[in-house]
Specification:
By secondary structure, the chain is of the alpha/beta class. The chain has helices at 4-11, 53-65, 81-89, 102-114, 124-135, 160-168, 173-181, 184-188, 231-239, 241-270, 276-282, 300-311, 336-344, 363-378, 393-409, 423-434, 439-446, 450-464, 471-486, and strands at residues 16-20, 28-31, 43-46, 70-74, 92-96, 139-143, 148-151, 194-196, 206-213, 216-224, 290-296, 319-323, 326-332, 352-354, 386-388. It has four domains: 4-114, 3-Layer(aba) Sandwich (Udp-n-acetylmuramoylalanyl-d-glutamate--2,6- Diaminopimelate Ligase, Chain: A, domain 1); 124-250, GAF domain (Beta-Lactamase, 2-Layer Sandwich); 271-391, Alpha-Beta Plaits (2-Layer Sandwich), CATH 3.30.70; 395-486, no CATH class. It contains 19 helices and 15 strands.
Length: 487
Amino acid sequence: MADIEDVVTQVGPALLRLVAPGATAVSDVVIADPDGANTAAGDLVLGVAAATPADAEALATAAGGRGAAALLLKSPLAAGPALATARAVGLAVVEVAAGTSWAQLVWLLRSVLDAPGDEPFGDLFGLADAAAAVVGAPVTIEDANSRVLAHSASQDGADQARVSTIVGRRVPRDVLAKFRSRGVFRDLSRGRVIFVPEQPDGTKPRLVVPIRMGGELLGSMWAVVPGPVSEERAEAFADTAPVVALHLLRRRASADADRGRSAELLRAALFGEVSGRLVAARLDLGPGPLRVVAVDAHDEGTRLALADRLGAGIGNRTALAEAHGVLYAVVPDEGGWPALRAALATPDGPVAAAGSAVDPGELARGRAEADEALSLVRAGLAVGPLAVYDDAWAVLVLHRAATAVVGAVGGVGPLSRLHGQDSWYRDTLYEWLRHPGDPRAAASALGIHPNTLRYRMGRVTALLGADLADPDTRVALLIQLVADRWH
């Protein structure tokens, strides 16, 4: 038998949220009587009749006393007195999304509990066939991004736009633009059945039904029809949407669970806890070489948006994981990396860095390189928003050298005489040493006139009291200044 966490995970966060965990295995789903008398051990108790916090609290007491597994309540009842009562008796509490139909939820929960395999609602193509039989026209089932998830077996009477949609597994851009200009997608957000007349270019009429669950638009069904459809047939077509919605929600929850497991596995490989070679094979990342890309994304909303952006248009061989506010993407060096680099190397892009190309067995090294390069971008030492380990080697050498010697050389020699002076003393000496024999370049780096540079260097030389004509002196001073600046 499943436990309550498994059930909530399979149904998905769009409908259910576990507020208080429980240890009792789940066996059945019941719609509770007002007094909870019909509940039993292992039941998922749906608080349909609970209208007030007092009702919910009484139901929690009754269900907990009979050994039920969990109490399902809509907000705000799930956070009221019932929560404290449930915790006291070891009863799990699950919050149900406000717009969820109790009838659909019962069907969904029982399907999850009774399902022997991964597809409790049957084949999505079978549902497309059933919808086509209801409306009497060829049907496609599409997600919220107009990608084709399934289509009816018969496409008799379909036009060229439908053929292109099925072949390309998504609605072509020009076709999308036509429907968008007619307001079809705007109407999808609020209508039940939408009829789209024939287009001037010969695109046949469509009957469109939105697929919703809990107030969220999950996708849509499109039927290519010869003309206006009777109200009865249109309503029958719309009535198939809730079943398709349950299927899509289940598929999404399953995909989310798979992504979560893959992310955990990849995270372990990136930090050297498991074999990177085995993980790369398990996630079908290819034989390598691979690139590890680290993206600064401390905000959860930013991480989700970036995950969608990184996962789109780069190919199937892309794996994502998150750790410590950094989103890691692992892509093939010759496949996904060029596309990902182009997507990130934009002026308004997030702060990001990539390690060098590594063998699948060296994912931990690739992650460490990406992290080091990312730290330099964050500190403003490397030019962003995207730094690549291979290209930033000079910055890396200087930073590593500075980190290694800063404590050992910082207080040695005449450089300490500049302490307490205006910052331009050290800045002027630093740029003068970096551009030997080229005062114009040094002045340009400082944003001053070459004559101003010469004047300042005179002040610095007098205060420093060191022989700047000696090459070893110049190297020693530059090392100290680099250590001070780059540490």
